[in-house]
Design a protein that fits this description.
461 residues, alpha/beta, Aspartate Aminotransferase, domain 1, 2 domains, seven-stranded mixed β-sheet, four-stranded mixed β-sheet
Length: 461
């Protein structure tokens, strides 16, 4: 059988299995169907956020404990979704439950500083190597304020981002993500494209995308912007791309970006909303050994409560100290969030916890690769500490262009359905990754691997 015939046969088999698994999940979740019908009367798509929507209906959850969650139909899952990567602590961790409960009894909000905010900022400074921190309530707020601070510091408007990276839902970064392959443009002149309606073209034009893992292309684009009188205020990027599954930086890439931005006086922002506290105590900054000028955190910081933070050098934060840049928010440093963050940093995300995550993830990655190889399924697995994914392609993914060039929409959707029908909850979509928690066990890993093994066997029988 030729490669073309083999690929076609796999696609045909996958389509048949997809129909079967969709029907199986629909039959198993009548409570979610009823909840969706009710919710759609008062919420668009029946969900609080469009990223939670799914056809024909999403799975509505009721509770979580440790590494497991339960839906409205009483079905139990090993949770590898983990709130889009927020719950690396696991659900209802006793240390966080205790801290938040004790704090609630003392008052839940003052819009005044508390000691926990001081303690958390001190620990973040120690972990990430940046001395000054401010708090916000989400990753979107963190990246929005970081960009504003960089613009206030430099007096420049233009920003540079990586094509395909997601940095939150404010206008300046809702640019050049989720674009069709034909709209991307060449590496040296990628297109600035709004992600959905409602984003002013003037704002889109201020955001310049460049490819990941290609420092020479970034350098050429920045030098051309300088020639045009549009020197960027900042480069905002993830040290490892976490919106295309997982794409790791190639050797020397981050060092080259650091040298380039420093040479031109451009603020380098590492968006660690997904990697911060999840891949090491000091996030991707520690893991890859490259120090940015600013870091944004969110997701895992609050242990399940809305949270975010911005770290920077003293020189950069001087524009906040002086009042030149207004970094404000009524719920910034909320006492409940700070209590949860403090407990998480000192009692949950310990060196032993990271060793546990590394061991489980290494086992999961090796197991997935073995299954793919044994059944001859095109793909490979990539991950780092609590994060990982299977790329169902035989070509390496190094940036958004290669991600779109080697699309396979059917197998990721089929894998999600196999998982859901076998007690494994994943974030839907080819662009998402798994997130382990400190409360995951080998039994959870076995469950994931058994689901993938069954899918691969069914595809090739």
């Amino acid at each position: 059988m030729t490669v073309t015939d083999s690929t076609r046969a796999l696609a045909e088999r996958a389509a048949t299995l997809l129909e079967r698994e969709q029907a199986r999940l629909a039959a198993a979740t009548p409570g979610s169907a009823r909840m969706h019908e009710r919710a759609s009367r008062t919420m668009p798509l029946g969900v609080p956020s469009s990223y939670q929507a799914r056809d024909p209906w999403p799975i509505y959850l009721t509770r979580g404990q440790g590494s497991r969650v339960w839906d409205v139909d009483g079905r139990e899952y090993s949770d590898f979704h983990n709130a889009f990567g927020s719950m690396v602590q696991g659900h209802a961790h006793p240390a966080i439950v205790r801290a938040v409960t004790e704090r609630m009894a003392l008052g839940s909000h003052f819009a005044m500083p508390t000691e926990d905010s001081v303690i958390v900022s001190e620990e973040l400074a120690r972990r990430f190597g940046l001395p000054q921190w401010r708090f916000v309530n989400s990753g979107s707020e963190a990246t929005m304020d970081a960009i504003r601070i960089a613009r206030g510091l430099t007096g420049r408007d233009t920003i540079v981002k990586i094509f395909g990276s997601y940095h939150g839902h404010h206008d300046y970064v809702m640019v050049s993500i989720g674009a069709p392959y034909d709209d991307i443009g060449p590496a040296d002149n990628m297109n600035s494209l709004g992600y959905g309606a409602g984003i002013p073209q003037a704002v889109i034009d201020l955001t310049i995308p460049v490819p990941f893992n290609n420092a020479p292309a970034m350098e050429r684009r920045i030098e051309r912007l300088i020639e045009e009188g549009r020197k960027p205020a900042c480069v905002i990027m993830e040290a490892a791309m976490m919106n295309l599954g997982v794409v790791l930086p190639e050797p020397g890439y981050l060092e080259a970006v650091r040298e380039l931005t420093r040479r031109h006086g451009i603020v380098l922002i590492f968006d660690e909303v997904k990697t911060g506290l999840c891949v090491a105590a000091g996030g991707a900054t520690e893991r890859f050994g490259v120090q940015p000028d600013m870091i944004t955190l969110a997701k895992a910081l609050g242990g399940g409560l809305p949270s975010g933070a911005i770290g920077a050098t003293e020189e950069i934060m001087d524009v906040v100290t002086s009042g030149e840049v207004k970094q404000v928010g009524t719920y910034n440093g909320n006492p409940l969030t700070m209590a949860a963050a403090r407990a998480s940093l000192f009692e949950v995300l310990t060196p032993q916890a990271y060793a546990h995550l590394d061991r489980l993830n290494d086992r999961l990655i090796a197991g997935c690769d073995e299954i793919l190889a044994r059944y001859g399924i095109p793909g490979y697995t990539v991950g780092i500490s609590s994060k990982g994914c299977v790329h169902f392609t035989d070509a390496p993914i190094r940036d958004y262009t290669s991600f779109m060039e080697h699309q396979n929409a059917v197998l990721p959707e089929l894998a999600w359905l196999y998982n859901a029908n076998r007690g494994v909850l994943m974030a839907p979509g080819r662009e998402e990754e798994w997130t382990l928690s400190v409360q995951h066990t080998d039994a959870d890993v076995d469950r994931y691997l058994e689901s993938l093994d069954e899918m691969a066997r069914d595809l090739t029988r």
